[in-house]
């Protein structure tokens, strides 16, 4: 269990670090971009809202830094992330909670699928090295070098259109009202197909390549030779011995690179005008909506940390060496 | 008369292909008889492990078997060439007829599977119709055979000590009662006490079960003690081959003498420790003639010119030994 | 994003196969086909970065009368909604992309080497703290952080963007280098150097760094890939140097002017392809480095025009058909 406790301590520390970065970034940068926006909206902001923004962005220069830091934490713990300028006068927390489920569903599911599929294909590519499967490699190399959002544009150009079953933008049909019914869910799934496919194809190739290389590396371990010497079937050696061990570094690689991948996949939402967090971040950047940007950064970071933790649990199950000694 | 079990005939094993190939095993002919322990000794790089992996086709890339035959005298099916088997025939042949105990016990076990499942999967692969209970009982029996309590079935390799892991490997090698067990430096990674203990147990197991052993090591002293016959390799070739006692008391090849001079006498009068000057040859740039001549204290004219042929020497000691040295003309 | 094996193994806390002594592999990489192809394409991009703006047939900002015109002999890649020549924009954009990529790569690599090697070499709480720091930076999503920092800054130039990317993306390299340093630290030659009383810095510079070259190079190339993609993504969402063109800016205008809906494929295809080919070249380079560090990854051999398939567990027997 000490492994798990260490990981939990690490995640708490990282969450603290991310929140602290979020606190310092606006304070370290010269000029007061937020001040101007607050002044502009002052007529419509009540005193509480103004105060909350002051605390978030450190405009209250009279207070010592540690006092500002404590106030900031106090506010965060109440779930107060300030008011969004783009969706004025909604609070940031409300804006994000409307978009987060969309992103969790799209990015979450496709990231996991892409890891599983890519790893599976990588197993084959690594095991059947020197056969026709090698032809897949140049294609995957190319796909893994393409920016996700650009690939999205190409997918729209190629697959979406007036006659296509793939809608090119939005999260659901404007004619349907959101709710837990067949119409809405069907429409939401249909709208997520193309963005999901985009993320899947472009992020999968990285997993194919890394799993292939791990397979090749693991294949020359002694226990693989032993497995061959034992006369085990090809399938058993490939899955039970090579892939099972090659999977371990791939899973920890998955955990570690989640932060990188999620950043890229979020922006696929932009080209599809998908109503998720990534599209909101895009809107926030365009409107210089700092409270929303910072709120989104925090939420993304915390989600990535949670996903990381799940990946750690998976690793714990997969590698007996990290489990408690018996 | 003892009958042959495996006959290796002019086996050549290379690393790499075409012009870039490095010839690691050259023209090796060697016979392992039924029920004997044949020791194969040589410095690192002499090709002894390459020979073992080459004859079983387990050599990793870029290894290639460049030629030769490995005739297995199957008691039921008669003799056949192992190198001509198809991959699926080879799969059936492996472990059932010849098993291997590998160098480095640390990495020979799959770290993510329990000991039990690594013992049973070999049994299952060769007898898919057997029951699960029967397989597990057999695995337990094998662990007991090598002195490990049966409840270690549930352990993972990292929970065992180095000596226990090597015992597991030996037990695993005996799972299908093979006729031949190849041991590649089986105890090199262990401490001396453990080494003796395990080898002692192995000798007992062999007497009980009657398999033949091809024992590969750089440690000639172990072979003198534990094997019936010894073959000595240098630069990819066998340079001398004789009953263990003869090698110890009356070796003919200067290289064998050098190897023997590298460890203290086991019993009897003390000998002087000498060692061999120089270092093993570079396989990419082998000396002309006898590969050993640059390091040989007794080299003379023909040594640098021509490669001596392995044959029965015209010397006292009987006809069951061979040597490749210009000092001892072939009969 | 392609992750090299060396990285993955190191990231998993395992030591990658030990790099060979530094001398032997010098110039070895030239003979590797993948590396060579990568280097040739990269060379072409560097030339583009230097001469692109001079070679542009038009001023990339100049408006023309042909609006949203498909590729013609006058405008090879067509025109924008303002009649600007897209070919000229792509050519001028190369400089910014290459500059930001290299700047960020250098900054991140220097940081990664300093933090990674010292956290691996110093076996004290300082080393542990540096390692924790790099893990924190690794897990925090870099791109959103870059977006926030870059958009809060009062003015962004290519240099600022390169610095921001470099300062936030060193963690992966640092982690890999730490793992490698840890495994090198226990080697005999390092112990020997310690025993003869060499100073810590001398050991780091003359004993460790030469053996980390391949890992550092692979980390550098990886960071450049990440930096180029990040820069282009930033520009695509509207955070870029307003005085300069880069391929992300072209895509930004294509997206905001509904290039897709107008069927103006020429507006976004060339810039995207330029990025993808640059990324592919960098990945190829990294594969080459991978194969040098990890010889197991090299492909099957050939003999007299016919390939002998090297299959693990079934050594080929020349002249016999073992299928």
TrEMBL record, chain A:
Pfam families: BPD_transp_1 (PF00528). It comes from the Bacteria. It is found in: Cell membrane; Membrane. GO terms for cellular component: plasma membrane. One of its GO terms (biological process) is transmembrane transport. Residues 100-311 form the ABC transmembrane type-1 domain. Keywords: Membrane, Transmembrane, Transmembrane helix, Transport. The keyword Membrane applies. It is a multi-pass membrane protein. SUPFAM superfamilies: MetI-like (SSF161098). The keyword Transmembrane applies. The chain crosses the membrane at residues 9-29, 100-123, 135-156, 188-209, 254-275, 295-318. Belongs to the binding-protein-dependent transport system permease family. This is Peptide/nickel transport system permease protein.
From TrEMBL, chain B:
Keywords: ATP-binding, Nucleotide-binding, Transport. Belongs to the ABC transporter superfamily. It comes from the Bacteria. PANTHER family: MALTOSE ABC TRANSPORTER, ATP-BINDING PROTEIN, OLIGOPEPTIDE/DIPEPTIDE ABC TRANSPORTER, ATPASE SUBUNIT. One of its GO terms (molecular function) is ATP hydrolysis activity. PROSITE patterns: ABC_TRANSPORTER_1, ABC_TRANSPORTER_2. The keyword Nucleotide-binding applies. Residues 8-260 form the ABC transporter domain. GO terms for biological process: peptide transport. This is Oligopeptide/dipeptide ABC transporter ATP-binding protein. It comes from Kutzneria buriramensis. Signal peptide: none annotated.
Automatic annotation (TrEMBL), chain C:
Its main location: membrane. Residues 98-286 form the ABC transmembrane type-1 domain. It is a multi-pass membrane protein. It is found in: Cell membrane. One of its GO terms (molecular function) is dipeptide transmembrane transporter activity. Keywords: Cell membrane, Membrane, Transmembrane, Transmembrane helix, Transport. The keyword Manganese does not apply. Coiled coil: none annotated. One of its GO terms (cellular component) is plasma membrane. The chain crosses the membrane at residues 36-55, 97-117, 129-153, 159-177, 212-237, 265-289. Belongs to the binding-protein-dependent transport system permease family. This is Peptide/nickel transport system permease protein. It comes from Kutzneria buriramensis. The lineage of its organism: Bacteria, Bacillati, Actinomycetota, Actinomycetes, Pseudonocardiales.
């Amino acid at each position: 269990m000490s492994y798990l406790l260490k990981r939990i301590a690490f995640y708490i520390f990282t969450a603290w670090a991310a929140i602290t970065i979020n606190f310092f970034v606006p304070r370290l940068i010269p000029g007061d971009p937020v001040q101007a926006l607050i002044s502009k909206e002052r007529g419509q902001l009540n005193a509480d809202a103004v105060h909350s923004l002051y605390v978030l962005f450190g405009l209250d220069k009279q207070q010592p830094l540690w006092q500002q830091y404590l106030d900031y934490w106090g506010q965060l713990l109440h779930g107060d992330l300030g008011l969004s300028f783009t969706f004025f006068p909604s609070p940031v927390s409300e804006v994000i909670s409307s978009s987060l489920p969309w992103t969790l569903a799209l990015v979450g599911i496709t990231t996991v699928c892409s890891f599983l599929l890519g790893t599976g294909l990588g197993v084959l590519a690594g095991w059947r090295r020197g056969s026709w499967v090698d032809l897949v490699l140049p294609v995957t190399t190319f796909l893994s070098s393409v920016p996700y959002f650009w690939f999205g544009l190409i997918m729209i150009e190629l697959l979406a259109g007036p006659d296509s079953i793939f809608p090119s933008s939005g999260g659901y049909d404007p004619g349907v009202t959101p709710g837990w019914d067949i119409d809405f869910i069907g429409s939401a799934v249909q709208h997520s197909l193309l963005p999901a496919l985009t993320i899947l194809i472009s992020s999968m190739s990285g997993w194919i390549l890394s799993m292939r290389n791990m397979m090749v590396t693991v294949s020359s371990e002694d226990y693989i030779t032993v497995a061959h010497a034992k006369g085990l079937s090809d399938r058993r050696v490939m899955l039970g011995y090579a892939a099972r061990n090659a999977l371990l570094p791939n899973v920890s690689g998955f955990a570690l690179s989640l932060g990188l991948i999620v950043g890229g996949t979020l922006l696929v939402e932009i080209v599809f005008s998908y109503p998720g967090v990534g599209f909101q971040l895009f809107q926030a950047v365009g409107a210089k909506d700092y409270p929303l940007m910072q709120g989104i950064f925090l939420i993304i970071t915390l989600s990535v940390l949670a996903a990381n933790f799940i990946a750690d649990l998976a690793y714990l199950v997969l590698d007996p060496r990290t489990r408690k000694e018996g | 008369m003892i009958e042959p079990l495996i006959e290796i005939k002019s086996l050549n094993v290379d690393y790499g292909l075409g012009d870039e190939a490095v010839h690691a095993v050259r023209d090796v002919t060697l016979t392992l008889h039924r029920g004997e322990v044949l020791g194969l000794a040589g410095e690192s790089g002499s090709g002894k492990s390459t020979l073992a992996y080459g004859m079983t086709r387990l050599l990793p890339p870029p290894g290639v078997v460049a030629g030769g035959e490995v005739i297995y005298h199957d008691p039921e099916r008669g003799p056949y060439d192992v190198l001509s088997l198809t991959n699926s025939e080879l799969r059936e042949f492996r472990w059932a007829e010849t098993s291997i105990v590998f160098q480095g016990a640390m990495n020979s076990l799959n770290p993510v599977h329990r000991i039990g499942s690594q013992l049973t999967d070999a049994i299952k692969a060769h007898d898919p119709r057997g029951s699960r209970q029967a397989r597990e009982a057999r695995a337990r029996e094998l662990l007991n055979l090598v002195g490990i309590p049966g409840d270690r079935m549930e352990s993972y390799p990292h929970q065992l000590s180095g000596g226990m892991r090597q015992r597991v490997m030996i037990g695993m090698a005996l799972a299908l009662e093979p006729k031949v067990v190849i041991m590649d430096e089986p105890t090199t990674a262990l401490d001396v006490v453990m080494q003796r203990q395990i080898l002692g147990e192995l000798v007992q197991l062999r007497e009980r079960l009657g398999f033949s052993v091809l024992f590969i090591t750089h440690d000639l002293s172990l072979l003198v003690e534990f094997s019936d016959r010894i073959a000595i390799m240098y630069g990819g070739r066998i340079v001398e081959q004789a009953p263990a006692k003869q090698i110890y008391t009356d070796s003919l090849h200067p290289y064998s003498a050098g190897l023997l001079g590298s460890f203290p006498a086991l019993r009897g009068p003390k000998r002087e420790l000498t060692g061999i000057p120089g270092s093993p040859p570079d396989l990419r740039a082998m000396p002309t003639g006898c590969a050993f001549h640059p390091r040989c204290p007794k080299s003379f004219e023909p040594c640098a010119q021509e490669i001596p042929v392995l044959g029965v020497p015209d010397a006292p000691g009987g006809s069951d030994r061979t040597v490749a040295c210009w000092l001892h003309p072939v009969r | 994003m392609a992750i090299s094996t060396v990285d993955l193994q190191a990231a998993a806390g395992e030591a990658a196969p030990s790099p060979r002594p530094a001398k032997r592999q010098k110039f070895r990489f030239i003979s590797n086909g993948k590396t060579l192809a990568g280097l040739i394409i990269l060379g072409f991009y560097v030339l583009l970065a230097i001469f692109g703006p001079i070679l542009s047939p038009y001023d990339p900002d100049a408006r023309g009368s042909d609006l949203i015109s498909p590729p013609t002999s006058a405008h090879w890649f067509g025109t924008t909604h303002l009649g600007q020549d897209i070919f000229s924009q792509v050519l001028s954009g190369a400089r910014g992309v290459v500059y930001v990529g290299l700047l960020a790569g250098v900054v991140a690599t220097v940081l990664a080497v300093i933090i990674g090697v010292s956290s691996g070499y110093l076996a004290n709480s300082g080393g542990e703290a540096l390692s924790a720091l790099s893990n924190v930076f690794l897990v925090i999503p870099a791109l959103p952080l870059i977006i926030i920092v870059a958009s809060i800054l009062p003015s962004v130039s290519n240099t600022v963007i390169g610095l921001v990317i470099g300062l936030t993306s060193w963690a992966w390299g640092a982690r890999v280098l730490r793992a490698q340093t840890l495994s090198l630290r226990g080697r005999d030659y390092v112990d020997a150097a310690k025993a003869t009383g060499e100073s810590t810095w001398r050991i780091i510079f003359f004993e460790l760094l030469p053996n980390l070259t391949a890992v550092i190079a692979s980390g550098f190339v990886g960071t450049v890939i990440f930096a180029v993609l990040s820069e282009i993504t930033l520009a695509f969402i509207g955070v870029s140097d307003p005085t300069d063109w880069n391929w992300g800016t072209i895509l930004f205008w294509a997206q905001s002017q509904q290039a897709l809906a107008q069927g103006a494929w020429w507006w976004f295809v060339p810039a995207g392809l330029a990025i993808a080919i640059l990324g592919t070249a960098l990945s190829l380079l990294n594969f080459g480095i991978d194969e040098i560090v990890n010889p197991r990854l090299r492909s099957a051999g050939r003999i007299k025009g016919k390939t002998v398939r090297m299959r693990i567990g079934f050594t080929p027997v020349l002249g016999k058909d073992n299928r």
